Backbone:
């Protein structure tokens, strides 16, 4: 850590009576590796400061020129923080013979460093120490007033900790206050992640429970077609029985090559019901990428539609058409209970797969977002899916809709038209929308008051989309 500090530059007694500005800037570089104690840090600062004083006559500009660090237009090349300690007695008057001298503040409207602190000891009217006071100069294109006030408060907290326990390690110093810790707990959803672990429930188990509760309720909407839970259950069971006949079981995977469609949801459920994982493949990706994914994951089979089947040619892979009449000959009854199993670990990068319990992992790694997702689903339970249907986000969409409502699969032609997309969302009264930031910006929020949660990327969204919806 490097900090700059000014020094008077009057080592020669000849300069004592000379009027002029001889201040130079020294750089104090402190090594914090190894987590030193406060006392060890002070010893290091003392030794390095004395060494720096020996070279105080070297102009700062010469130092920069000799070191020749990487230059940047955004910050100073050697130090970004200056600390000046004003040790002159503020009560003492500056005497220049018969001349009267007054100190006047000067606001240059410029900042030489990102942050410059000028501190001095303060005394009360009785001449007793009354703490440290000072001022902070900062670059307004780097910090705002609130950020600087936070930095000052944290500096005060650190100084108190340093003086309270000289034997303490630097890592033991807490720079955050109670409100900041509470905010971190809220963002990290500590109340949830610290709860005792519960037995995770797979998507097929949750879906089966919803089928038993409300078999005639609408589960999936795609264009004019509406699938009830019973219909979706029977269709996925038939495909799952066929997959089991081809060897699908816990520990292996099945590739899914689909555009966004209701059939993609059937295929996802079918694979998960066998206990296997599915490998989602977007049909728009290059053939070379498809080959890499298939070679890496080694699926036992692939499910697709007739119009996409050619993308899987020459891969030596069993390809199943989701609309093949052979699927209809399979029983629509439930499958025997199967325990999900994750694939073994490997030292090489693997293509991500979706497992029957994979959604549970997603909820624990980002509980704040998923918790809001579930709460929005519980209130109305209409999830609009407009991402590619076999991406991993589809498992979360399916899980929420399957447990509390219905999944609206938006056809790709409609999702590409903001007006048509908006019409579908209003008609279905979607409560959860997952979309890309650019697509959300093109949508009008009018008529979408029922959409309690909008899940997007990290790009900022228009203010009108935030009204009445949770942030984060």
Residues:
């Amino acid at each position: 850590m490097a900090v700059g500090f000014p020094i008077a530059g009057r080592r020669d007694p000849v300069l004592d009576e000379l009027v002029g500005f001889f201040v130079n800037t020294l750089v104090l570089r402190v090594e914090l590796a190894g987590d030193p104690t406060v006392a060890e840090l002070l010893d290091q600062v003392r030794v390095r400061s004395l060494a720096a004083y020996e070279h105080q006559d070297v102009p700062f500009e010469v130092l920069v020129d000799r070191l020749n660090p990487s230059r940047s237009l955004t910050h100073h090349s050697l130090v970004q923080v200056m600390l000046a300690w004003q040790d002159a007695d503020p009560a003492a008057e500056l005497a220049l013979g018969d001349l009267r001298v007054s100190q006047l503040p000067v606001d240059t409207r410029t900042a030489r460093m990102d942050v410059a602190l000028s501190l001095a000891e303060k005394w009360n009217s009785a001449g007793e120490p009354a703490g440290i006071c000072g001022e902070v100069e900062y670059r307004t294109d780097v910090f705002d007033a609130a950020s600087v006030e936070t930095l000052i408060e944290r500096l005060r907290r650190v100084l108190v900790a340093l003086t309270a326990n000289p034997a303490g390690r630097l890592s033991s110093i807490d720079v955050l206050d109670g409100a900041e810790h509470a905010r971190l707990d809220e963002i990290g959803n500590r109340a949830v992640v610290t709860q005792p672990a519960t037995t995770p429930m797979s998507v097929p188990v949750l879906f089966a429970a919803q089928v038993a509760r409300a078999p005639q309720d609408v589960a999936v909407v795609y264009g004019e077609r509406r699938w009830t839970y019973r219909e979706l259950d029977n269709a996925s069971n038939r495909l799952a029985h066929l997959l089991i006949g081809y060897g699908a079981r816990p520990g292996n995977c099945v590739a899914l090559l689909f555009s966004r469609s209701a059939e993609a949801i059937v295929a996802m459920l079918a694979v998960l019901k066998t206990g296997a994982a599915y490998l989602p493949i977007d049909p728009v990706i290059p053939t070379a990428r498809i080959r890499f994914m298939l070679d890496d994951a080694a699926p036992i089979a692939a499910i697709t539609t007739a119009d996409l089947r050619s993308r899987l040619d020459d891969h030596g892979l069993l390809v199943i058409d989701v609309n093949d009449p052979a699927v209809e000959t399979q029983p629509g009854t439930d499958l025997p209970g199967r325990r999900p199993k994750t694939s073994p670990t490997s030292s090489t990068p693997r293509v991500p797969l979706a497992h029957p319990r994979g959604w549970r992992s997603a909820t624990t790694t980002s509980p704040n977002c998923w918790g809001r997702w579930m709460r929005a689903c519980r209130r109305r339970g209409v999830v609009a899916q407009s991402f590619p249907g076999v991406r991993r986000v589809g498992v979360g969409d399916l899980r929420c809709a399957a447990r509390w409502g219905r999944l609206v699969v938006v056809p790709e032609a409609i999702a590409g038209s903001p007006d048509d997309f908006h019409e579908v969302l209003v008609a279905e009264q979607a409560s959860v929308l997952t979309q890309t930031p650019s697509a959300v910006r093109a949508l009008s929020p009018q008529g979408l008051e029922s959409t309690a949660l909008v899940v997007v990327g990290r790009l900022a969204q228009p203010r009108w989309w935030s009204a009445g919806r949770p942030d984060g």
Notes: The chain has two domains: 2-192, 203-337+350-455. The chain has a mean pLDDT of 79. Residues 2-192 form a domain with the Chloramphenicol Acetyltransferase fold (CATH 3.30.559.30). The chain has 17 helices and 15 strands.
